[in-house]
Amino acid sequence: MNPPPAKTRHSVVAGFFSNRVNDLTPNPPPRHGNQQVRVSAKTARLLKLYEDDLRVRYGARTCETYRAEVGVFLRWLSECGLGLAETRAQDLQAYQSALYAARKPDGKPYSTSSHYVRLTALKNLFRFLHRRGYVLSNPAAAIDLPHKEKRLPRTILTPGEARRTLDAADEATPTGLRDRAILETFYATGIRVTELANLAPADVDTEERTLRVVQGKGRKDRAVPLTAAASAAIEAYLATGRPKLVPAAGAPWLFLSDRGGWLHRWRLNWLVRRWATKAGVKKHVTCHTFRHSVATHLLKGRADIRHIQMLLGHASLQTTERYTRVELSDLRAVLRRAHPPGRWCGPVPRRSSGRTSRACACEAMPRPPWKQPSTWCRVSSPT
């Protein structure tokens, strides 16, 4: 049985609430656009200080995520009649168990990455409170974070699919010119969706064919080169498309919405899916799909992995190395050359002179002209 709620004065904090709180309640409230959670005046003051600290330490996207996850935790505390400053380690263990027991609307459990982000937000919150002296001890210090899953990218475009998606954009309209420039920029640089949305016209130099990312992930700047196609698409958009989209009061962003405002990331994902569908691509394509595809295509083209790291803006080389598990050309060639005869490619039926003979499937595969059959396959010419 939950203890009765404390009789304290409450205030409303809208910034620390998320619609994802519905995932943890058996009878969720209606989903409204401006839901709020009621907290005590002391908790509201602590949250305001924590939000100020987040703005100094992290980027806008991380602050938004941490605020949302703290809002889920505050709703759970409210239902249990607990206060933020009085939270104990046992309470956080109970919350962690509630997270692991929560299910999606389709009945499936949440991913390990979701639990990792939610618990990391709590550890960050209580580390701040303990560092500032608002709590005597850090109750979140003993929380064990789940082991993050090392998953491969779900969707990778082939070079042909990427080219068809780029060519699908209609360049006869201002928005079509904008969309073509957006797609070309994604495929040329592998830029993150939020980084692209925050670009300014001054961040692009079409003559030098460079693009500058200001305050990207981790609040880091970087400069990346542009392809000739991307530079030409951006130049055409700046000359013809953007002047028809920019409002009278002006706008600081490079890529504008249909009404001249900021392009939200969900809108950018919708645009990418729209042109991919029009191009006949059956895969689920998002802005991040281009990022995965760029890294894979460069790696397949024998680009140095550290250069790919610089292009994508990864802080750790381990993050970039996961694409080596996607590109299997070298591994496939080694297996074809070194695997025991008949196990990798296997014999296939072939008709010759009215009789059925057996030949290796490698004979039907394209191979470089300098590769002789004796060195290409150990089935067709065993030694």
Task: Write up this protein.
It is a single chain. The protein is mainly alpha-helical. The chain has helices spanning 41-57, 60-80, 89-101, 112-131, 159-168, 174-189, 193-197, 228-245, 265-278, 287-300, 305-312, 317-321, 329-338, 373-376; strands at 10-13, 37-40, 204-205, 210-213, 222-225, 347-352, 355-360. Strand 6 (347-352) and strand 7 (355-360) form a beta hairpin. Helix 2 (60-80) packs across helix 4 (112-131), helix 5 runs antiparallel to helix 6 (174-189) and helix 6 crosses helix 10 (287-300). It is globular. The model is unreliable at 1-35 and 370-383 (pLDDT under 50).
List keywords for this structure.
two-stranded antiparallel sheet; DNA polymerase, domain 1; mainly alpha; 46% helix; 383 residues; hpI Integrase, Chain A; disordered C terminus; disordered N terminus; globular
CATH superfamily membership of the largest domain? Intergrase catalytic core
Could you say what the CATH topology of the largest domain is called? hpI Integrase, Chain A
CATH architecture of the largest domain: Orthogonal Bundle
Walk across the major sheet and give the strand order.
3-4-5
What shape does the CA trace take?
globular
Residues in helices, as a percent range: 40-55%
Strand content: 5-15%
Instruction: Give the biggest beta sheet.
Output: 3 strands, antiparallel
> How many structural domains can be distinguished in the coordinates?
3
Unreliable segments of 5+ consecutive residues:
1-35, 370-383
User: According to CATH, what is the class of the largest domain?
Assistant: Mainly Alpha
Q: Write down the overall mean pLDDT.
A: 80
